[in-house]
Amino acid sequence: MDATEKPSPSRSETPAGRASAGAVSSHAPGGPAPGAAAGIAAHGIGSHGGHSEAGEGAEAVVVHRPGYPARRLEPVPGVGVERSSLPEGVLAKEAADHLRVWALLPSGAAEETRDLVRLRELVADAGTRIWVDLADATHGLVAEVADALRIHPLVAEDIAERGQRPKLEITGDEAHIVVYAIAYGDRLETTEIDMVLARDYLLTSHPAGWDPLETHHLRMGPAPLLARGSDYLAWALIDSLVDSYYPIVDGIDTEIDTLEDEILASADKAALERLLDVKRALVDLRRVVSPTREVFNQLTNRELGLVQAETILYFRDVYDHLVRLNEELDSVREVASGILDVYLTSVNNNLSNIMKRLTGVTVILAGVAAIGGIFGMSEAGAALEGGEHTGFWIVTAIIVLFAGLTAAVLRRIDWI
């Protein structure tokens, strides 16, 4: 789906949409209830084997793109994640372990639950703002939550399968946003975070290693943020993620400076291996930051109908931060590439120094051999017995003096 496509008016905002959502409010997690089958078929959430197919009441999504006629995306039978066939108690246990729901009721009261049936009731209650958080959720639990929130089956499948690049995908009246949390130790570690943003709810799905409640904007809990809208809550989570990128980039920059000093002092193999690890981390980091910048470029330059006018300013602030991060990453990558060139130059210089020293030694030995070869080894016995004339010792002294002078000259020009 093209990220620039504009959604059709929200079905869930209409009385008919609310009635459809309410029809499944009493549905038990273990099996379908009256009215649930229509909701499941409308979104094509069934098994990959095609046990649940779109029927006559299936709902198509109308997509609008500026300058192009509207087109309809018809439901495809069997597309989507497989709904769980587990008993109700087992599914309820999965929800208790992996599902968290925060709701802000029209009365202003806040509620937190882990119950799937209660989630359906909250969705059916007009005016309720909901945040659903999934941590290491199974495919079955993702399908149940997607059915309760009436999320498009292709989006539910992407959330369940993971492995998405940072992106913004608009489907009907919802936006699927993929961003990443990052950590840096010996290597860069990335954590995919999927968000589905609609007018009255926000869904987040992520591995258990990342806890959204630990972000600095949520220190007072999600209720104050939900009061300002689901889009504001989405901004708060993503802004915390982007803010966490800065210390990592600064740490890599500091490490590169240290490696530069080490390589200039001694170009050893360990420094080269660490430099290559840093360069790989920079490539991985750019794969995260650069597409995320494009996501916010689209969010802040198009009227999606999902982001309030006052919240767009906050998204623009995140976009500015990402632009700055991309510029810093470009600078750090250039420095890292320059250090690699310095390393290669240092290795070549060391090799040249070694060759010069070997050449100097060769010059000395060649001079000694040339002079000594004039007399030959036949005189060695007489010299050891003291039978040589004075001229032999004079020539020997000249050889030693010549070798010493040659060594001094080569030392002076730094060849040895």
Task: Give an overview of the whole structure.
It is a single chain. The protein is of the alpha+beta class. Among the domains are: 1-223, CorA soluble domain-like (Beta Polymerase, domain 2); 353-412. It contains twelve helices and ten strands. It has helices at residues 15-22, 36-43, 88-98, 116-124, 139-149, 153-161, 223-227, 230-265, 269-301, 309-375, 380-384, 390-412; strands spanning 6-7, 61-64, 71-73, 99-104, 110-113, 129-135, 167-171, 174-184, 188-197, 201-206. The chain has a seven-stranded mixed beta sheet, with helices on both faces. A hairpin with a 3-residue loop joins β8 and β9 (188-197). α1 packs antiparallel against α4 (116-124). The longest helix is centred in the last third of the chain and has 67 residues, at 309-375. It is rod-shaped, with a radius of gyration of 36 Å. Mean pLDDT is 76; it is low at 1-58 and 62-79.
